[in-house]
Design goal:
Layout lengths: L6 H23 L1 H25 L7 H4 L3 H13 L1 H20 L2 H17 L11 H14 L10
Helix pairs in contact: 1-2, 1-7, 2-5, 5-6, 6-7
Length: 157
């Protein structure tokens, strides 16, 4: 997998996969805690992506070197290169909405779970850049949350 020669990537890969397994366990045993952890994850991702996309948009071009998908690499080095700020801004906004949905219940929560799963699966081809396979594990955890009883707000623990 591309990027494994970088010690920082390996450390972040291990951490992200440990977190993903903990989120999966929490989704099964303590769904409200899992929802809280997904709220924190997506809120942090929203803030981070908004900040970096506006201050150092070229950072996102590095993902083109990490992906195993030729289509993703062509997209990143093509259209995306010219539209980083609005594209990542849109993604960050969606991440913020997913974060908020984790706090809520009913259909809003369900839409947030589906959106989170789509996002997590969409970034799988970024490999080590997205902590592969942690995003697949997280998508499974969100699927479990989607199927569980979601009739309570997160603060109703």
């Amino acid at each position: 997998m591309k990027g494994l020669e970088n010690q920082l990537y390996i450390m972040l890969l291990i951490i992200s996969n440990v977190v993903a397994v903990l989120q999966l366990i929490a989704a099964v045993k303590w769904p409200l805690i899992a929802r809280g952890s997904f709220f924190l994850l997506f809120a942090w991702a929203c803030w981070t992506n908004w900040k970096i996309s506006q201050q150092a948009p070229g950072f996102y071009l590095e993902y083109g070197d990490l992906t195993w998908s030729e289509w993703y690499r062509s997209f990143i080095n093509g259209w995306f290169r010219e539209h980083i700020k609005p594209a990542v801004g849109f993604i960050a906004t969606c991440q913020g909405l997913i974060a908020i949905s984790m706090l809520l219940k009913g259909w809003i929560f369900k839409i947030g779970c589906v959106g989170g799963m789509v996002f997590l699966l969409a970034i799988l081809p970024f490999g080590v850049g997205a902590g592969f396979p942690c995003t697949a594990i997280m998508a499974i955890a969100m699927y479990i949350l989607l199927k569980k009883n979601n009739t309570r707000f997160i603060w109703e623990m």
